[in-house]
Amino acid sequence: MIHFENVEIGYKKPLIKVENLTLELGVIYALVGRNGSGKSTLLRSINGQISLLKGDLKINHFSIKTLNTKEKSRTVAFVESKFDGVPFLTVENYLALGRAPYTNPLGRLNTSDWEVVKRVANEIGIANFLKKETVSLSDGERQLCAIARAIVQETNIILLDEPSAFLDYANKQLLIDKLIQIAEEKQKCILFSTHDLDLCIENKIEFLTLSNNSLTKTSCQSKKDLIAILEGKI
Q: CA–CA separation, 6 vs 128, rounded Å?
């Protein structure tokens, strides 16, 4: 669960204001807004990379201000917009990076850590890729691996910054299907920024709209109305 209490987000000046808003577990939210509205800034603020200007943001009832780095990494997983892969880094070892918050000071994984990696790979449908190098995969396959790495991290919150930006329509739909399944079956709160309004409407995903420096939750399923909200006409 993510709860905003009179929050102001930005750098020197407020870019986003959120008075009172709660994002629940088991739900997937599409974060939409015009370019420059602060979508990435919002995600990085929830992840603790950017300090709040005002107010409090609670993750699972704990103020983000009180969480140390390890506690944050056990609570929130963040997926960048594109993972290009790393030469000689196998999918198996890439997924294993998600266990870093739980390893000993030497960073060694134990048997249970590797079991998590294999279980998640099977659940996401990438078990056949485990021994492949990440650079050898397609964009869609690498994006699924990035999401799998976040699930291996075993957090209640997963944030994704435009995860479908470089995917074709078929892979975009596959990604949405997986995210909906993960949110519902694993009771996770998933928040992803996107410009794919039609795809989200087709899949009945709840929207978080950024407009006029405010963040609002809406279940609007009309693209015309949604655009009007983003342009500040509603």
A: 46
Residue 94 · residue 86 · CB < 8 Å = yes
- Report d(CA 83, CA 138) in Å as an integer: 10
Task: Give the β-pairing of 54-59 and 14-23.
Answer: unpaired
Tell me how far apart the alpha carbons of residues 80 and 78 are, in angstroms, rounded to a whole number: 7
The CATH code belonging to domain 2-230 is: 3.40.50.300
In the chain, domain spans = 2-230
The pTM of this model reads 0.89
How do the pLDDT tens digits run along the chain, 234 residues long?
899 999 999 988 899 999 899 999 999 999 998 888 899 999 999 998 999 999 999 998 889 989 988 889 999 999 988 889 999 999 999 999 999 999 877 778 999 999 999 999 998 889 999 999 999 998 888 988 998 999 999 999 999 999 887 788 888 888 899 889 989 998 999 999 998 998 999 999 999 999 888 898 887 777 877 777 777 645
Between CA 95 and CA 47 the distance in angstroms is 20
Tell me how far CA of residue 198 lies from CA of 66, 186, 209, in angstroms.
39, 26, 15
Instruction: Identify which of 183, 130, 127, 124 has the alpha carbon closest to the alpha carbon of residue 156.
Output: 183
